[in-house]
Amino acid sequence: MVNDEALLARAREIAAGVTDPELPVLTIADLGVLRAVSLRDGVVEVTITPTYCGCPAIPQIVAEIQAALARAGFAGTRVHTTLSPAWTTDWISDAGRQKLAAWGIAPPPRAGSGRALFAEDKPVCPRCGSPQTERISAFGSAACRALHRCLACREPFDAFKCH
Amino acid sequence: MLAMQQSARVPRWRFCARPGLRVSASLSAMGTTSITVAEDPRVLQLLRRADDALILGHRLSAWTGHAPLLEEELALANIALDLIGQARALYQEAGAVSGHTEDQLVYLRDERAWRNCLLVEQPNGDFAATIVRQVLYSAFADPFWHATRDSEDAALAAIAGKAEKECAYHLRHAAEWLVRLGDGTAESHRRAQEAVDALWPFAGELFATDAADAAMIEAGVIPDPRTLRDRWNATVDAVLARATLTRPPGGWMQSGGRVGLHSEHLGHLLAELQFLQRSYPGARW
Q1: Which among B78, B84, B235 has CB closest to A117?
Q2: Whole-prediction pTM
Q3: Is the pLDDT of residue A93 over 80?
Q4: Is the pLDDT confidence value at A150 over 50?
Q5: Which residue, B123, B133, B117, is CA-closest to B207?
Q6: Using CB atoms within 10 A as the burial measure, which of A136, B75, B227, B229 is most buried?
Q7: Is B59 in contact with B18 (CB distance < 8 Å)?
Q8: A 77-106 near B (Cβ less than 8 A)
Q9: How far apart are CA B108 and CA B31, in angstroms?
């Protein structure tokens, strides 16, 4: 039914607009965390996937999806979490990558070298654009980030880990 | 006199000491009684993998507030978070079959029911010991989960798909630290070599298999750990060489963790981990 299609499009738009609690500039759609939205007997079914196994933001994301859909008048929402296929930073949209850089976080390299021992990612500085950067710490303020420093402008910055 | 005063105040003190803690009206909600898990080969396999990740994650979390650098504190806490996340996913799968919640599996199993290898329960020791333990474990977990992505067990394959990326990153981090320590000062080299020598006899258990593992290997649920040994050797040898550390000779290896025969350290760890649920059954926060 056309009505259902419009309803589904509306539900998808609302779910896609929910932001990540640790990266408020990004929506869960930008991040690739939102996998599917469907409508079954008037109930919205949303499927999301965690970035990391221990991602502490998942319960909050679930609650915010349910709250956003409830505010828009959807009576019931079921949120499913799936691990497969495993989330990868390659799922971050181009818009998401631009938002990250504008927010001061270097976007992850594409199809990266995460498996190589003794390899070092050298993200471009999101502030001045210099490729001359060094890693300060492989782990940062959130599971998905590492800490780097720009050798040109000397500013430290977060970089999205390749995953 | 002092003892009497304290004794008279015990009830109120106990109440006030944990104002945020709600003990449910029915203490039977999650009793203190230890649970027994019916271990079919799949549940046992899930518990072996989950217990490895949970115990190592718990060990690492104890560095919070004590790590040598702020950055390293974040790193160890992040690795712990990944491992505990992996453990939770595995416990949920095991519990779905055995009829337990993940909390019951963690808080109400006695020491003899834990299936982790002995390596992960070894004490944190100094920073070198923590890093060596991490290198030895991650050099195994990385190829193990990588190969388990092709498991016939869809749930395990899904967990493996996430765990392998996390473990590869942990391995890289721990390996970099071991090189820094081994190829650092005379003191850091001495400590790193002592840690390698002390923990080496616990590495063999990573590759050991029994009849329950054999059934899972036969069914295509897990890879045969023995096929991962060459990869593990290559990784560990490369890291030790870069770190100017000496690989200990082979020889006798410790075992027993997979069937619940643990070192003296696990009991102490569990006493701390399980204390709250054992003393305040059903407590939630």
Answers
A1: B235
A2: 0.90
A3: yes
A4: yes
A5: B117
A6: B75
A7: no
A8: 82-87
A9: 9
Question: Among all chains, which residue has been given the structure tokens 């395990």?
Answer: B156
- B236 and chain A in contact, CB less than 8 A: no
CATH of A2-81, one of 3.40.640.10, 3.30.300.130, 3.30.70.141, 3.40.50.620: 3.30.300.130
Query: Which one is predicted more confidently, B61 or B22?
Result: B61
A113/B contact by beta carbon, under 8 A: no
For chain B, the distance separating the N- and C-terminal CA atoms, rounded to the nearest angstrom, is 36
pLDDT(A55) > 90: no
Q: What's the pLDDT at A119?
A: 76
The dihedrals phi and psi of B11, each to the nearest 5 degrees, come to -60, -45
Residues 6+ apart with CB under 8 A from A98: none
- What domains are there in chain B, each with its CATH number? 37-279 (1.20.1260.10)
Q: Structural domain boundaries of chain A?
A: 2-81, 104-160
Tell me how far apart the alpha carbons of residues B157 and B159 are, in angstroms, rounded to a whole number: 6
Contact (CB<8Å) B169/A114: yes
pLDDT digits (tens, 9 = 90+) for B67-111: 999 999 999 999 999 999 999 999 999 999 999 999 999 999 999
